[in-house]
Amino acid sequence: MKTIIQLFDECVTKYSNNPFLWEKKTDRYEPFTYVQTKEQVYRFAAGLLQLGVKHNDKVALLSEGRNDWIIGELAILHTGAVNVPLSVKLEERNDLFFRLQHSESEYIIVSGRQLSKIRLIIGDLPFVKKIIIFDEQDAYLDNEIPLSEVYYMGDNKLATDPECIISISSQIDGNSFANISYTAGTTDNPKATAETIRDGWLYTGDTGYMDKDGFLYVTGRLKSLLISNNGEKYSPEGIEEAITASSRYIDQLMLYNNQNPYTVALLVPNRESLKSYVKSHHLDLNSPEGKVKALNLLQDEVHQYKKGGTYSDKFPHCWLPAAIAVLSEGFTEQNGLMNSTMKIIRNKIIEYYDDRIKYLYSPEGKNIVNDKNMKAVN
Q1: d(CA 356, CA 361)
Q2: Measured CA distances, 263 to 223, 233, 237, 322 (Å)
Q3: Helices and strands counted in the chain (H then E)
Q4: Rounded CA separation 363/302 (Å)
Q5: How far apart are CA 124 and CA 295, in angstroms?
Q6: Cβ of 260: how many Cβ atoms within 10 Å?
Q7: Bridge pairing between strands 233-234 and 29-33
Q8: What Å distances lie between residue 245 and 68, 191, 319, CA to CA?
Q9: CB-CB neighbours of 127 under 10 Å
Q10: Selection from 80, 97, 96 nearest residue 88 by Cα
C-alpha cells in the first residue's frame, strides 16, 4: 500500500511543472506547481523538525482553505507526525477545546483569522509547546511564532542536513498514522455521538447522487432546500460555504427563501477583520461612518458572486441574497442555533430571527445600511 508521501512524490515527478495549487492573493488566481509545492513542504517540514516535532507527535491545523493548509499538512506528514485537522466552524470553548485536549496536540498551526480562538483557550492547554501562525501579526504572545520564521529555520536545517526530510519520510509506511479526523458526530457528548452513529451507519440526511464511475457527490441536505417564488427548489449550503470561504470578513451565513420574492441572508461577520479593515481607512467601527463602511464591505463581499463580481459564474443569481441582516452574535451550540455535529439548526434560526427576516422583505430592510444592521455591527 502506497503512502500519501509516495503518491505525492510520484505526482511531483510526473507533473513537476504543472499547476498543483491555485490561490488568489491579489486580483487574480496564481498557480503553484508540484515542484514549488514540494520545495515549500520540505522547508516547512524541516522547520517543524527544528521546533522539536518528532514521530507520532500530534500537530493541530486550524485554518480556512488555502495553499498553506495543504503545504502544512504535507509538511506534518513528512516529519512522521500526525495531523489533527480542525474545522473553522468549531466553537472554541467546546468542541475546539475538546479536540485539542483529547488529541493531546503539542503544536498548533493556525491562520491569523482563527488565532483569537486559540488565544482564548490556550491558557487551559498547558501541553501545547508552540503555535505557528500563517499570517504576520503586529505582536506575538508566548509560544507563538510566524510561519516565516519556521521557513527560515527550515532553510538553515536543510543547508546543514539536506537529506533530513527524505531520511525521515522514507521510514513512513502504510501502517503509520496520517491524521486524527474527528467526524461531525464525534464530540464530548456521548449521547449526541450515539444518536448520529447507529449500527455502524452514519445517518447524515444529505442529498446527492452516484455517478457512472461510482463516485458519490453530496449536493446538500434534505431539510435545507429553499424554494423560490416560482417553486424552484435549491440547496443553500454550497452558496453559504463558498461565500464564507472566500471572505475573511464573513464567519457564518444562512440563506432563506420560502417562496418569497427573493432570497435573503443572515450574516455573522468576523469583527476582528472588520475592525482592521475600518481602521485601515482611518475610521472606528463604533462610529457611524465606520459602521457604514463595514456594512458596504460586507455587501460587496456577497456581491462578488453576482453579475460583474469575481465569482459571478458560480451560482444562478436568483439564488443569491438580495438583502442581508447582519447579526450581533453567531450560531453556536450554546445559544441553541447549532447542534453538536456543528450544523446550523435552520428552523430554530428562522424562528429566532423571524422579525429580522420579515424586515429584509421591506424597502428599509433591503438597504444594507439600515438601523438594525447599524446596531448589530460593532
Answers
A1: 9
A2: 17, 12, 13, 6
A3: 15, 17
A4: 19
A5: 35
A6: 17
A7: unpaired
A8: 14, 31, 18
A9: 10
A10: 96
* pLDDT (tens digit per residue) in 305-347: 999 999 999 999 989 999 999 999 999 888 999 887 778 999 9
Do residues 108 and 76 make contact, with C-beta atoms less than 8 angstroms apart? no
pLDDT at 182: 84
**Where in the chain does DSSP place strands (E)?**
19-24, 29-33, 58-62, 82-86, 107-110, 130-133, 144-146, 197-198, 201-202, 206-210, 216-221, 226-228, 233-234, 250-256, 258-260, 264-269, 323-326
Q: What is the average pLDDT across 350-360?
A: 96
Grid coordinates standing for 212? 457512472
Plot region of 129 (φ>0 → left; ψ -120 to 50 → alpha; else → beta) = alpha
Q: Cα–Cα distance between 313 and 317 in angstroms, integer? A: 9
Q: Angle at CA 23, nearest 5°, toward 18 and 24? A: 135
Q: Which three cell numbers mark 312? A: 459571478
Q: Kindly state the cell numbers that stand for 17.
A: 511543472
Residue whose entry in the numeric block shows the C-alpha cell 482611518: 282
Burial label for 221, CB within 10 Å (0-12, 13-18, 19+), is: middle
Estimate the share of the chain in helix, then strand, then coil, as percent rounded to the nearest 5. 40, 20, 40
**DSSP structure class, residue 96:** I
| Gyration radius of the chain over CA positions | 22
Q: Are 150 and 132 in contact (CB under 8 A)?
A: yes
